[in-house]
Prior knowledge:
Its cofactor is Mg(2+). It holds the Pfam family Inositol_P. InterPro entries: Inositol_monophosphatase-like (IPR000760). Belongs to the inositol monophosphatase superfamily. The model has no long low-confidence stretch (mean pLDDT about 90). The radius of gyration is 18 Å and the shape is globular. The chain has helices at about 1-20, 40-60, 90-95, 180-190, 205-215, 245-255, and strands at about 30, 40, 65, 80-90, 100-110, 110-120, 125-130, 135, 140, 155, 175, 195-200, 205, 220-225, 240, 240-245. By secondary structure, the protein is α+β, with helices and mostly antiparallel strands. The strands form four sheets. The protein has a seven-stranded mixed β-sheet, sandwiched between helices. Strands 11-10-12-16-14 form a five-stranded mixed β-sheet, with helices on both faces. Strands 1-2 form a two-stranded antiparallel sheet. It has two domains: about 1-140, Fructose-1,6-Bisphosphatase, subunit A, domain 1 (Fructose-1,6-Bisphosphatase, Chain A, domain 1), CATH 3.30.540; about 150-255, D-Maltodextrin-Binding Protein, domain 2. About 30% of the residues lie in helices and about 25% in strands.
Amino acid sequence: MPATDLPLLIDAALEAGRIATRYSGQTAARWDKPQGAGPVTEADLAVNAMLEQRLPAARPGYGWLSEETEDTTDRLERERVFIIDPIDGTRSFAEGSRTWAHSLAVAENGVVTAAVIYLPMRDLLYAAAAGQGATLNGKPIAASQTASLEEAEILAARPNLEGRHWRGGQAPAFTRAYRPSLAYRMALVGQGRFDAMLTLRPSWEWDIAAGDLILREAQGKCTDRSGKPLRFNNPNPRLNGVIAGGTGIHALLCENLDPDGTGIQA
Length: 266
């Protein structure tokens, strides 16, 4: 239940931060995962090991989905599941940057009910429980009320501006910014620091789950690239991109995006 799961996630995230910051990002052992799945460091695995021991022990009936654990179908039979990214932004961690995060969530019947995104190097802890609002370091946060794309600052990687993603073959005018951690991008939108974020390629659930609830509890809106609500704990744990923002900007992005990625005016 949200009221009891959130304190558990907060305590686990703080411990994850203590473990990760014992490693020096640039000297931590690093290697590439098979099949181009990206880098991993000894810090990722150390954090994952702690979380995989601690969280299921506290909630024996919950399933488990983590970037650093081999996936099984067992979680599909569970009503509730932990969705975990031990370190989101591993490349940034390995480069010695401060913009990496721990992303922890619980989903119940496909909907996230408790979530934490923690950046230990920036002392930022974003948290939310269903129906209880979203906070940053214990203080309430709210998504942007900006209602014009021309005035909006949107977090997005440059490839998302390619014409094929947009109706009429051209992205609308807005100010683009970027942060390497996808979870942090979503938290920043929930905080109102940016008006929206979008990623138009298939996205792993563990990158998205915590940010989805934080943003929704901050009175923003979060959907896939076609505007459909996000559902979690899928057999293939990938989502069809993500559009997240204040309600006004979210609606405008959905109007301008081509859900098929062809850039053809419907």
